[in-house]
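Bug #77: duplicate submission created two jobs. Keeping one. Sequence:
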Amino acid sequence: MENTKLYVGNLSYSVNEDKLREVFSRHGNVKSVSLITDRETGRSKGFAFVEMSTQPEVREAIDSLNSKEIEGRAVRVNEAHPKKDRGSRGGWGQSRRY
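Kept job's structure:
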C-alpha cells in the first residue's frame, strides 16, 4: 500500500486545518488534515499531517509546497513515516518496587 500521508512542519501557530486543506487541495484531493495540538492548552504544536488520495498528488504537494511560505513561515513538507514503537524506556526514571 502506498503512503499518501504528508508531514507538514514549521507551521505558524495561527494556521488552522481549514487553511491547510485550502492550500493542499490545490495539488489534489485532500482526504484528511490533522493539526497536532498541545493536550493541555489546545495550542498548535507547529506541525500537522495531511493525507492525499494518490501518490502522484503527494509528490506534487511536496514538490510545490516544501520550503514555501504559509502565513509567513517556510514550511517543511515530506512523506510521513509510521510512528516507530520505542518499546520500554529501559528502567530509567521508573520507580522500582522490590
